[in-house]
Amino acid sequence: xxxxARSVASPHVVSIEDFRPIARQRIPKSVFDYLDGGAEGEVxxxxxxxxxxxxxxxxxxxVSLSECSMCTTVLGFKLALPILLAPVGYSRLMHPGGxxxxxxxxxxxxxGYILSTISGHKLEDVREGSTGPxxxxxxxxxxxxxxxxxxxxxxxAGFNALVVTIDTPVSGIRERDYRNGMKExxxxxxxxxxxxxxxxxSRPGWLVSYFLDGGLPGLPNVIVPGKxxxxxxxxxxxxxxxxxxxxxxxxxxxxxxxxxxxxxVLTGDDALRSIDEGAAAISVSxxxxxxxxxxxxxxxxxxxxxxxxKGRIEVLMDGGIRRGTDxxxxxxxxxxxxxxxxxxxxxxxxxxxAGVDRAxxxxxxxxxxxxxLLGCASVGELDRSYVNVPQSWEAG
Length: 396
Hints:
This protein is of the alpha/beta class. The chain has 20 helices and 14 strands. The strands form four sheets. It has an eight-stranded parallel barrel, surrounded by seven helices. It has a two-stranded antiparallel sheet with strand order 1-14. A two-stranded antiparallel ribbon has the order 2-3. Helix 16 packs across helix 17 (298-309).
């Protein structure tokens, strides 16, 4: 066992929450709060996790199970667990291995991985690193020319699906980033950086790794025609100029012949529109509480979306997944699988690839234990009969 793996083994790390203090200690405050924080007052961020407490289980007792199957399929791809690792931007700032390390861990565990457009590693390297299905999450940063080039590169590299995020016409205001000087540290001049340097200098291990990795990464998957890779400092401005519309979905479908997942659906109406525009799956998501604060938790609107689509496309869900019980509740309420973002990103920040391995293992063991305690032989058998859902949710 490597030193990194030992640092996150039991009893140091027993649950996903145990990664947070380790990550906080290892990386600068500005990077940790970028990972940990949400928009405005962080109401939706907190509610994403809290809302799972409102759903309780209805177990079948006196049931003996020789084994529990946790396998499922998403878009026809077999997964060992009903989990895809969600796109997490700036992963390379959390650890030099970044997206490549996360993709390798996902493939090793038989999970899917979704690569963010805001990646510090080339999409070809990420695809090569994983033995499992890998999807590319698309922002229209840099304009249609840059997006079309990225889509073609993803096709050639062997990406299995495209994930189009529809909830980011502008970047949400994440107040922690402003207080920590994230913008000044990334793009400010020397004098602008000075007030925020102590938090960086207080993490010498991270700082050495950062410089050995080449310093501030660009965005190698956003190649602006005539200009080259988009600098990381231009991300917020680029997002403000790259809102995805339903008309863009038509254009994307014309140039990408594989399956498309629409991510950021919070209403039955948008779910139905996604079907009309040719989506093969949707992800019920509020962007981890990082965009519009005050929208419902993802789990809260899952019943409305599931009812609206009536099985015509696959429904995924992301937001607040920290335990195997959370995964089971989402599946009981109609999700085919869940996307986990912070759950593995805390592990990445704490211990690199070994931390991602450990996060996945925690969720795997948690989910299997939950199935056995529910008296359910497989994730495919989980349905509403295994949970109590508040009556007020039934009205959507």
